[in-house]
Predict the 3D structure of the following.
Amino acid sequence: MKFLSITFLLLALGGCQSTYYSVWEKLGVEKREILVDRVEAVSDAQEDAQQQFSSALEELTSLIEFDGGDLQKNYDNIKDQYEASMESAELLTSRVGKVESVAEALFDEWREELEQYSNEKLRRDSAKKLAQTERNYQKLVKAMKRSVEKMDPILVALNDNVLYLKHNLNASAIGALQGEFGKIKNDIKLLIDEMNAAISQSNQFIETIKTN
């Protein structure tokens, strides 16, 4: 019951970030640990997004190669893939936002605590580590945001395909979609490459955080 009470309290305080982090710290969980958890959560969301957009590409490939059968089923499948891709994108965007939130709180606290040192050597060493961690973080968040941004044109293109098929559900309509297929395929490949780069950057950042 105590664990459930704490969980409900943290959920209720989600909108008040300073109080939220304060409660966690009283439980022995520092902002640094929350940051690591949230960076890992972004990596998980990126891996899921890779699989989802790959599935959408497979379904679109099947649609483009349509050679008789139930076109309505193909349409329903690509529509489902588009909606699932939207959900995947929204989850990833949300998790990147949560990383930014805790990172800002962590760095603000770190800067404030630099003023509390009486030992100048220790203060300089801590300030140096803060600067390096912030630089690493900026590289990380840029990589995360690039992967998020690359989802947008794919989602727009998938939505266009879904809308077009909705009102033109016949075999001849497939030909009109083939021109865009190559671009979508290439965009998804670039998206997966960006996400792999961001995941690699996340792993490096987490290792740096743990070392510090």
Observations:
- Residues 71-114 form the longest helix (44 residues).
- The chain is about 90% helix and 0% strand.
